[in-house]
Design a protein that fits this description.
The protein contains 8 helices and 7 strands; from the N terminus they run ααααβαββαββααββ. It is α+β, with helices and mostly antiparallel strands and 340 residues long. A 5-stranded mixed sheet has the order 2-4-5-7-6, with helices on one face. Strands 1-3 form a two-stranded antiparallel sheet.
Length: 340
């Protein structure tokens, strides 16, 4: 069955006015008919007084007949809101064929559905966050206990200390990403704009991620035109690091990643293309949502904050991002960024 669009406030007001006018017309007609009938009975001027009583009684009966269902509908709506307040987000209301309450019920159901989805995503995010925190903490604790035992060779000690340092860095990155995304979403982040070269900043991001790409045997190429930008250098650095690191993370060994930058008019166009695992249309529709995890098995480290951070930064800087992807054939991310 095709879903009917919800009624707007103006439409509801129009319906109310039309029904009020019709009710007034019916009441006037009933009054005139009652007066004419009573005059024929020879009641004289008393007919007009009696004519007032009869429509009033009929109107009261009609009001009661119409008001009781409306009162029941209102009580049902109140009970549903109380259920939401108590934490039951699965409650839904029956959407009737017509009337103002049908529109209100449809709005309520849509609200409850969205709240339920947010709760589900939040729970997934919390579970992932806890998992990602427990993993490095467990490793840190285990290697710290090993280091307390006597007789370890110096080389083994250095290796364990490097692992502990790496896991600590992972924990710090998780905390920093969560804090940054919160500040971006609440607009509680000062934006300091200055002129800088985008190609140099992207080159620095590539240099930082090149060891990870080599470790996986990936071919990393770059075609960067000199492009000057006036914007938030600190925030935009997160964009390139997140997009390139995602390409490295989701591209299997032996694959390739191509990065390019060029100026088109007053905008800069940054592109990163990989031969990775790609994404389905369903995954693509949620990759910029906070809490969303495309890999519930957690086989790859991370809590899915990178792309929401990218989206929020570009929104703050007046840019936008486009995505093309085919499952098993890789993905392409394009960033359009105003340079002035």
């Amino acid at each position: 069955m095709k879903e009917r669009p919800p009624l707007e406030s103006r439409q509801l007001l129009q319906r109310f006015v039309i029904r009020s006018v019709l009710a007034a017309a019916v009441a006037a007609a009933a009054y005139c008919a009652a007066a004419a009938l009573l005059l024929r009975l020879g009641l004289g001027w008393g007919a007009y007084a009696a004519a007032l009583v009869l429509p009033a009684l009929l109107g009261a009966g009609a009001a009661v007949r119409m008001g009781l269902p409306a009162l029941r509908s209102f009580q049902r709506l109140r009970q549903a809101f109380q259920a939401i307040t108590d934490g039951n987000l699965s409650v839904r209301l029956p959407e009737g064929p017509d009337g103002a309450f049908s529109a209100a019920y449809a709005d309520f159901n849509r609200m409850a559905q969205e709240l339920q989805e947010v709760r589900f995503q939040r729970d997934e995010y919390v579970n992932t966050f806890i998992h990602e925190f427990k993993t490095p903490l467990t490793a840190i604790r285990g290697f710290a206990e090993l280091l307390q035992q006597p007789g370890f060779p110096e080389e083994e000690q250095k290796r364990y200390l490097q692992i502990i340092a790496s896991e600590c860095q992972q924990l710090a990155q998780l905390a920093n990403d969560a804090q940054l995304l919160t500040k971006l979403e609440t607009k509680n982040l000062p934006v300091v704009k200055k002129a800088f070269w985008l190609d140099e900043q992207i080159s620095q991001a590539l240099a930082l991620l090149e060891p990870s790409a080599k470790e996986k045997g990936l071919t990393l190429t770059a075609d960067l035109e000199p492009v000057e930008c006036r914007g938030s250098q600190e925030l935009l650095s997160h964009v390139w690091l997140n997009l390139i690191s995602n390409a490295v993370k989701y591209t299997p060994s032996g694959g390739s990643i191509a990065v390019s930058l060029k100026q088109i008019g007053l905008d800069g166009l940054f592109t990163v293309t990989d031969t990775g695992i790609g994404m389905t249309p369903e995954v693509m529709s949620h990759i910029f949502d906070r809490y969303y995890q495309a890999d519930p098995t957690h086989t790859r480290r991370g809590i899915g904050l990178g792309l929401p951070i990218v989206h929020n930064i570009l929104d703050l800087c007046g840019g936008r991002i486009d995505v093309e992807s085919t499952p098993g054939a890789g993905s392409t991310f394009r960033v359009h960024l105003p340079l002035a």
